[in-house]
Amino acid sequence: MVTRSTIMDTNSFRAEHAAALDHETKALTEKRGEVLGESYRLFYRNPVHLVKGKGQYLWDAKGTKYLDVYNNVASIGHCHPRVIEAVTAQMQCLNTHTRYLHENILSYSENILKTMPSEIDRAMYMCTGSEANDLAIRVAREYTGGTGIIVSQESYHGTSELTSGCSPALGTGQVLANTTRCVSAPDQYRIITEDLGHWFADQIQRQIDDMRANGIQFAGFLADSIFSSDGVMSHPIGFLKQAVDVVHRNGGVFIADEVQPGFGRTGDAFWGFERHGVVPDIITTGKPMGNGIPVSGLFAKHEVLSAFSDQIPYFNTFGGNPVSMAAAQAVLDVIQEEELQQHSEEVGAVLKKELTYLMNKHECIGDVRGAGLFIGFELVSDRNTKKPNKKLALNVIEELRNQHHILTSVAGPHGNVLKLRPPLAFQYSDIDWLVNALDQTLSNVRMFD
Length: 449
Prior knowledge:
aminotransferase, single chain, 13 helices, five-stranded antiparallel sheet, disordered N terminus, seven-stranded mixed sheet, Aspartate Aminotransferase, domain 1, about 15% strand, alpha/beta, Aspartate Aminotransferase, domain 2
C-alpha cells in the first residue's frame, strides 16, 4: 500500500510532473534525486527555484516576484536587515557553545521571559523546534513519572524519534508511539456543540482514561494552540482552558508548542496560549524566534523543569550560541519596536474580512477563520454537507503559484484548507494581490471540481 503524508505529500512535486518542466528546473530536480535522500519533498507540481528574498517577497531565478503567504519561519520578513546586522556583528566576534559564559544568552532570556506568565521563569535553548519538543516530552515524563502524551489528530511537533512518535501529521508511514493518544481537533466549523471547550476537554479525559485502562500513566498534553496542521482552529477564544484544567486534574502537564502561533502572529496576544487564558507548564519555540536562524527554546516553571534538570545534565552543542541569541534578540526587538503584534492584528482583521466577502461570490468557500496573520481558508464541494474539496484546494494553490505568483499550501486532515500564514512584514497593500488572485483563481479552477 502506498502511504501519503498529510504535510509532506499533499502539495508536492512527483515524478509524473517532470515531463512538464522546463529544462533548467527538470535538471535541478534530477540532481536532487541523485544526491539527496528520497524522503525530501518539493512544493508544487512545477517547483519554485528561489534565489532572493526581502520582507514578504521572494524572487525566482528568472526574476519573477512572488508574494509569500506561507513562510512563518522568516517571521519578521526575509533577509531582515536588523537580523543580518546582528548576526554579522556577532559572527565577527565569537560563536561558541553555552559551556562558556556569554552575555547574549542571559540578556535574551531575561527579555523573552518578561513576555511570559510570571510562573514561567527558566529557559533552555536548542537549534530546532523538534529538539525543543523532544526535551519538553522528556521533562514532562520526569516531572510526572508518566509516559503518555496526548496530541491532536493532525498535529506536527517534530522529526526526532520522540516527536515524530507524537506527530500524526507525518502520515501513515510514520508509526506513532504506543504511549501517544490522539484527540479530534476542536473544529468549530464541523463540530456541532454549544460548548466547544467542554467537548474538547471531554476528548482529553477519554484518552487519559484509555491510557489508564492500558497501564499507561499520563504525562502531558502537547498542543499548538491554533491547531495549525489540523486546519487552523482559532475560535472561540478561551476554549482550551477546560482541557488544560482536565490535564492538571489528572496529574499531567500542558506543553504549549508556540513554534507557529507565537511571537505576536495571532495579533490579539504575543503567545498563542494567552488567547485561552491558560498558563502552560512548558512552552516551546522554534526557528521563527531567530527569523530562520537555527535557534529554539524551552521555557518552563522552575519546579517542572527541575525534576529533569536537577538529575540530568543537558548540553545542546550550539543551542543558545551567541550568534543565534543575537538573531533572536534582533527579532524580539523588531517585533516590539515596530509593534508587529498590533500590525498582525490590524492587517489580519482586514485580510480576514476581505476573504470572508469572497464567500458571497464563491459557494466553494466553506469557512474563513483565524487570528491575526494566521488564517484558514476552507474549500468544500457543498456548503450544506461541508464535504471537503481537496482536489479544488490543490488546483487553487497551483494556480496561485503559476498565474498569480503567490506561495501558500494546504493543511487539515482532508488537505482542503489553505493555510495563509505570511511573514509579519505582510502589508495592507498585499491584501489586494492575494484576495484578487483568490477571486480569479476560484472562478477559473472550478472546472476541476
